[in-house]
Amino acid sequence: MQFEVWAPQAGRVTLQCDGVTRALERDPERAGWWWGEAEARDGSRYGFALDDGPVLPDPRSRRQPDGPDGLSAVVEHERYAWRVPWQGRPLPGAVLYELHVGTYTPEGTLDAAAARLGHLAELGVTHVELMPLTPFPGTHGWGYEGVSLWAVHEPYGGPEALKRFVDRAHELGLGVVLDVVHNHFGPSGNYLPVFGPYLTDTHHTPWGAAVNLDAPGSDEVRAFLTGSALAWLRDYRLDGLRLDAVHALVDTRALHFLEELSTAVDALAAEVERPLFLVAESDLNDPRLITARGEGGLGLHAQWNDDFHHALHTVLTGEAQGYYADFARASLGGLAKTLTGGYFHDGSYSSFRERHHGRALDRNRVAGHRLLGYSQTHDQVGNRAQGDRLSALLSPGLLACAATLVLTAPFTPMLFMGEEWAAGTPWQFFTDHTDPELADAVRRGRRREFAAHGWKEEDVPDPQDPATRDRSCLDWSEPEREPHARMLDWYRRLLALRHEQPDLTDPDLADTKVAYDEERRWLAFRRGDVLVAVNLAREPAELPLGVPHARVLAAWEPVETPGADGVVRLPGESGVVLLQE
């Protein structure tokens, strides 16, 4: 078997494989690369030593059986016998479900999560979006401090378990999306800087030195990131990738890394003959991210739309702190703006940033499905001091209104695990750092962050306490009892309508027409023949929407068919979906 590694600054590189050490040779055709052959098989342990240094794991390791600090293991992907032929599921018309493997079940493994996928197929989602799976020290964590970008966290089950998970998902007709982190590497167990200039001091990020996308040596770093992305899609038959915080990818080159990546993914999709897509997390409000490359964009297929979340969150909760301030002032008008234009900050002044922010979408060039809409995500729940979900803040009626808006809006909907039954469990920030100094620094930093906002130290959960993770696990007895069962039925009904009514998956943002009454706290919008209305006030409301005799498709509380006057009489804190044929 051939082994290779990029180590441009090394004077000597040796390979240790199954206890046997041998020197590698410089590759005459690729500067900085070393290669050699050794007898190995699936599971063989190996690592590289540079000059007189210790044996380290392979930067392109496919498996880390003993964690980030241990030796790498050979993975022969072709040994796995895929059970399910899979033609893929495209992004248009999709409904995503964000899932953290470590808390989706108490067991916290891929196999345990796979056993619960039937619930998602019955719910009506189309794709499972897994939070990051790359190895990190310890057992439990969010996954955003991972290293070994080609490997699967061993406590979750390793590479074979991921393949079994994907096979089971595909068997149920579900696509699988993986969250990948290219903007930084974890602080513990990361040996990449020993091998080469994977980081650069040319730019700085919230995590320190930036990933090297444009300084000397960046060609190989970009190839490293692109190669890992393609490996997930090819070797594990994934359907898409979610790219974490792309606004932190600092790249001054004429050909931006994201354009290079989207080109490579589109080429792989053509090769494997199934749709593949990239979804970016970005706070830039820059439509070039999701504009086709042929039209001057970067060619990503979609992005998270935090503006819709913020507008929805503020009208539901009344919260107005931090970046919520502008949205709270705009209230229902801000929510209406996102429903028709995608972005709220489209060149407008952002008081949080103290500058103008964003750029308007061209609704004739950018389809609505390229924006993901949601009321909750791992960030928006877990980054609260106590990890409280909307179910801890709102009445069942307002939760139903949130679901109504998310699942009928002109965006690709995304749910956060457990929201479909108004889970009573929190989802808190938890870590399992094995380095005591790092663990203490994270604990103190978390508490210091919230102390600045008035929180008492004892009220902020200790990320390193195993109980913090345990509290965050879903309680699978909840969906079978009230009030959770009723909420689950509402989500199922709305998702069924989304699949039944073509107007609800129409990608034309410009076709969405919105009306609202700020004082009476109701909002309605029309998409083709489908009309959606929510009443956020406690009192009943009469909505003069001009839809005589419209048929009620779904209602949280009983709603009469509108009469000849076309007025919709809606109970307090409730939502309705009607059809005006």
From TrEMBL:
Protein name from the UniProt record: Malto-oligosyltrehalose trehalohydrolase
Compartment annotation: Cytoplasm
Transcription among keywords: no
Taxonomic lineage of the native organism: Bacteria, Bacillati, Actinomycetota, Actinomycetes, Kitasatosporales
SUPFAM superfamilies per UniProt: (Trans)glycosidases (SSF51445), E set domains (SSF81296)
Known EC number: 3.2.1.141
Source organism (scientific name): Streptomyces levis
Highest taxon, organism lineage: Bacteria
Catalysis: reaction(s): hydrolysis of (1->4)-alpha-D-glucosidic linkage in 4-alpha-D-[(1->4)-alpha-D-glucanosyl]n trehalose to yield trehalose and (1->4)-alpha-D-glucan
Metabolic or biological pathway, per its Swiss-Prot or TrEMBL entry: Glycan biosynthesis; trehalose biosynthesis
SMART domains: Aamy
